User: What shape does this take?
Amino acid sequence: MASAKKQRISWQSMNASSRSLDQKSRAVNGVKNTLLGLFRFVIIVGISYVILAPVIGIIAHSFFSRQDSINPMVFTVPINPTLERYTMAVKYLDYLPILGRTLLYVFGVTLIQLLICSMVGYGFARYQFPLKKLLFGCVVVMIVVPLNTIQFPLYMTFRYFGIGSNTVNLLKTPWPTVILSVFGCGLRSGLYIYIFNQFFRGLPKEIEEAALVDGAGSWYTYFHIMLPNAAPALITVAVFSIVWQYNDSFFANTFNISDSIILTRKLDSLINVIANAEKILTISEQQLYFDAGVVLVLLPVVIIYLVLQRRFIEGVERSGIVG
Assistant: This one.
């Protein structure tokens, strides 16, 4: 009896000591997790601030009044906020008409790139033909070669577009970007072809085999079966194309596309136009109008991204460009 009692007491003491050790380990783990979470929070906030601080500054300054702009005590939050900067920016940017033409141009080029790049990517993924690897290597080269290296050839091609004496000047029009997109050489087309190629390679071939058994041809299979299944890749490429076409300055400047079509080109002259029309000579006040113009130009892209955000992230995950 005495030995059993001693054994029971020893087990109780061991259980108590193990519970105390568990409590200490949980407390230590809790402190570690708290410190790690705090460290992550600080890092995320710091990185977010570095990225977002210029944007926050531009948005805040666009509401500054003249008194705020000359007040050294005002840094970010305006004391006397005003919408005058936006009123003037909308007026001298001719905002709504040019925005409409810009979106028409951007969405038109995007639709062309979606059709052409998806067809090329599908061809590389599913068909065997001579020089396939070499041609796909050329697609990869399109991704890595800097556009500045081909700027002059592109300019001369569309300055004298045609054969022999039958040439036409396509500069100052959107036709050069449209033609490049039709032939799969538009802005970032190489990347889009690569995305579609990776996505179509991941789809099971049994889908096409079943369609072939049912009597479907290649074109019917592509447009009615494969393309609807490629919705994630289509959304990913669409968002990329819209944003890059909307913010493009390389092709717009190379081909000297009219600022009545490209809103970002109109923005470049906003300060000079307002300074001459309103007789505003103070550089700091001129910058406030430019900040309002920047916000107006950014707004459509932000809205498009917010609308397509969930589908865009899903498309990126399924399109083979993660990691």
Notes: The two ends are 67 Å apart (CA to CA). The chain has a mean pLDDT of 84. The beta strands are 161-163, 166-168.
